[in-house]
Fold:
Amino acid sequence: MAYEGELVSLRAVEPGDVDRYTRWLNDPDVTRTLFARYPLGREAEREIVERLGKRGGYGDVVFAVDARDTGRHIGTVGLHGAYYESRWASLGIFIGEKDLWGHGYGYDTLCTVCRFGFWEMNLLLIRLDVLDNNQRAHDLYRRVGFVDEGSKRASMLKGGRYLDASFMSISREEFEALHGTAPDLRALEVLP
Amino acid sequence: MTDVYPRPTVIEGERVRLVPPSMTMAPQFQEWVNDTDSRHLSGGIAYPISLAAEEEFLRNRMHTSWEDGLFLAIEAKDGPAPRLIGSIELRAFSPEARRCEMGMLIGDRAYRGRGYGTEAVRLACRFAFQEMGLERVHLQTFDFNTRAIRAYQKVGFVEEGRLRRHAYLGGHYYDVVAMGLLREEFRP
Structure:
């Protein structure tokens, strides 16, 4: 009951996720590379999750990421601020469960959310920013097919240092050239 | 026939019955609404819907009347116990033009393509014509959804028009097929 990738499935954020989000977003190993700064209380996170449960739609899509093999909630991904006219949105992602870093979940989450953006929302481009202390994510985005566009100097103050951010994007054509196109439902012999 | 389900506002046929939704059905409806295939068949973009959002949706459809419309759960009644298999909706009633719009989903895959949807459509249309005094029921579906189109045709619906490339889902544009059924065309 979700938007499925190979390793992950993307679903709506639910109240039961609050404790995990609170844990992840207060973990310096997780937030070190994110555009997040302030400590986050459980009640504040609960309010955020409640709000997320009501919203949704073109301008702000947020998913909880579950590992398909175990059903375990491992992170989050979203497409934010989509422009009706220009048809691009900003992608945000983190895998909060550190023991699952480097297992391909991030890659599959990115591919799946790109499919959603291009094939459900009909976006033309998906953008993201990545801090320059996050080489690992930068490499991952390149592997998915995101292209470097440039750099914004001193984007984020972290631990007394002003970090640059790279910005990257992927177009629908670039994505489909690497990952394939959507099946045409008219060509199906049997409907689901 | 013995009424083994003594509830007041039941629309009942051979194999299915249409009942007002209850909040206990919310998790099942949420599962279907978040199932990408089901969402595509029934006309939506697969945005994620939380349980709270689905409960809110149902809460707004608890009441059935001319003004509120009728959102009804489809239950299969040929098993050992009534089983929730989908939903059907009559909405946007016009008192002047005597028409309404219909939407239907068989959410449970095991019950698709077996005539349950056709019977639900027939029951809902009978209610619209006989109990609400309508002259016309109309609906929209997608060109790829040949199974739904066939079900509607069996009840008497005819294609009235085609909205070319009206819908985008699952990576493609699809035509939307507009269908309508007039009171005298209805095959009960």
About this structure: The radius of gyration of chain A is 17 Å. Chain A touches chain B at residues 1-4, 10-15, 50, 52-54, 56-57, 61-63, 115-116, 118-122, 181-186, 188, 191-192 (CB under 8 Å). The CA atoms of residues 34 and 131 of chain A lie 7 Å apart. The mean pLDDT of chain A is 95.
